[in-house]
Structure formats: C-alpha cells, structure tokens
Design a protein that fits this description.
Distance between the termini: 24 Å
Number of helices: 16
Number of domains: 1
Shape: globular
Number of strands: 2
Order of helices and strands: HHHHHHHHHEEHHHHHHH
Largest sheet: 2 strands, antiparallel
Strand content: under 5%
Length: 331
C-alpha cells in the first residue's frame, strides 16, 4: 500500500485533493441543459469506481497485510459502518450545497457552507485525534475562514452575482455546511488513531475511501430520489430523464466523480501521515481553486470593479497563509 513517508509528499497529495475538489464542478458546468439531480447519479458512480481503481492499484502495492483486500478482510464492521455513514452525510451535504448555490448564488452559498464546514470539520476531527500543533492549526483555520469570506465579498461585488436571498436559502447553506463538516469525524473514528494510548480504527485510507464512496452511492437512492421528487429549485424530474439524457452528460458526470474521488483518496492517504484534521483543512482550500477557474477559464471577473479584484487578491493571500500554517502544524 502506498502511503506518504514525508511531509512534502503528504502536502503534495493534500494540495492535489484541494485542486480536485475545487475543479470537479466544471464538468457539471459543461453539461448543458442537464439537471443536476440526473447528472449526480453518474457523479456518484464515478466517485465509487475511482476509489476501487486507486484501491486496487496504489492501495495494493506489495500485497501485504495493509493492502486494500487484506485490510477489508480484517476491518471491524463498526468502522465500515462509520465510513459509509460519513459518505451518506457528505452526499446529502453536497446536494444541499448545489441547491443553495441555485437559490442564493455562489457569493452567499459557497462561503457560508464551506466556511462552516471548515470550522466544524477541523475542530471535531482534531478533538477526536489531536495530532499536530493546536495553535498553528487554529491560526490556519482562521486564515482559511477569512479567505472564504473574502471570496464571498469578491463575488458579491460583481453586478452579475447580486441576487436576493431568502430565509430558505440561508437555512439550506447552514445545514449544508454543518453536514459537510461532519463526515470527516466519522472517518477519523474509522481510521487508525490513538486514544489514551490505545489504538482504535481498522480502516486504512484506501478501504476508508471505498466504503465512504459506497455509502455516498447507496444513499443516492434516498437523498437524490427525494430531491428529484421534491427539488428545492425547479420542477420535479423522473428517473426516465436519466436514461434519456445526453451521452455527454453521462461522460461528464463520471469524469466529475473521478476528479472528486481522486481528491478524496489522496486526502485520506495524506491523513494517514498528518492526521485527518490537517488533511481536511488543506483540502477545504478548494474555494481558492474554484475561484481560479472562475477568473481564468469562465472569465467571471471580466470587467469587474477594482473592489472585487482587491477582495480576490486578499483571498488568495489568506488561503496561501492558511495552507502554510496548517502544514506547519504537523511539525
């Protein structure tokens, strides 16, 4: 099983995970006139398939006791359930986040949801597995939180981003953020960690990724079906729309899942070296990556006022500072 043996490799994997998490949504943006609830089926299949592929390649080098198949055979059933529950929680949070973006716009939904997720996820994960410097980790989280706020300020400065917000949209953002921050503690408990000198958790990073994405896929039969019948935005859609959907939509859905799933595997593998709290915190710098896509590819800031560009520049500064502080927390 491949695992990082130095902070440099672990940091590279964590930054890669942030790039993946901040990039996968571009595949949905490329799927024209295709409802997200339908696109999401392929996305969920994609994250599970890539976890299996990486598990049987990177996670099976050497074929020793720590390899994927061997790990699954000796894994505790409670840890498997914890990982699958974590995946189901993530899946619901992700669906709510997209609905919140449709209702309130990126300027409000993304900073509120991801900001809350960052704080909840890092604090609860560190409370369960206190690995690294608490002071530096707290400073890094604060910088990252400031960065997502600045990200929201930058988007709200754009005339195209201004739209009214409702109580429903704000509640959806908050619920999404809390849920998005709660899947990480489940993974902390399922993966090896020490409590009062006693080791707990039996799932290695690759097995944890497989069961987390399996939980996400299976939970689509509950969460996604519900939102197809009772969408927070738009009219109800039927499963028949999925089978009659465009080939390009299915391909992009699988690709989006592959991208996000690769980020998840890399994040969990890096967490085996740094601890889930640190790996999760750096992975949650994905809004910075998403902003780069918006600026460089989708030209969202073309003709933007100087205030928006100032907020955007400050956001990158605080995110970079946050990543450095969180990385140093492992020292």
């Amino acid at each position: 099983m491949f695992t990082p043996h130095s902070l440099g490799i672990a940091l590279f994997m964590m930054i890669t995970s942030a790039i993946c998490w901040g990039s996968w949504a571009n595949t949905y943006k490329g799927a024209k006139n295709y409802r997200f609830e339908l696109f999401y089926w392929d996305y969920a299949i994609g994250i599970f398939l890539i976890s299996l592929i990486l598990g049987h390649t990177m996670g099976s080098t050497g074929h020793d006791a720590s390899s994927l198949v061997s790990n699954i055979h000796v894994a505790n059933a409670n840890d498997v359930i914890l990982a699958m529950v974590g995946g189901a929680i993530f899946n619901l949070a992700n669906l709510l986040l997209v609905a919140a973006i449709d209702m309130a716009g990126l300027a409000i939904a993304f900073p509120v949801s991801i900001g809350i997720a960052l704080v909840v996820g890092v604090i609860t994960s560190y409370a369960q597995n206190p690995k690294g410097s608490a002071e530096l980790l707290a400073a890094g989280v604060l910088c990252a939180l400031i960065a997502v706020v600045l990200d929201g300020k930058a988007y709200s400065s754009l005339a195209a981003a201004s739209r009214s917000t409702s109580k429903k949209s704000i509640i959806t953002c908050i619920v999404s953020g809390v849920l998005m921050g709660l899947w990480a503690p489940f993974m902390t408990r399922a993966m090896p960690h020490e409590v009062n000198g006693i080791m707990h958790g039996t799932l290695g990073p690759y097995a944890a990724a497989v069961f987390l994405t399996l939980g996400a896929l299976l939970s689509c039969s509950i969460w996604n079906v519900y939102f197809m019948k009772h969408p927070l935005v738009g009219e109800p859609v039927s499963l028949a729309g999925y089978f009659s959907g465009p080939i390009s939509g299915h391909v992009l859905g699988l690709l989006g899942g592959f991208i996000w799933g690769t980020g998840m595997v890399f994040n969990l593998v890096a967490a085996s070296f740094t601890g889930v709290a640190i790996s999760y915190a750096i992975g949650q710098s994905a809004p910075m990556v998403a902003a780069l896509w918006g600026v460089l590819v989708w030209k969202e800031f073309a003709g933007a006022p100087s205030k928006a560009k100032m907020y955007l520049a400050l956001m990158f500064v605080f995110y970079c500072l946050g990543i450095l502080l969180v990385a140093r927390a492992n020292g």
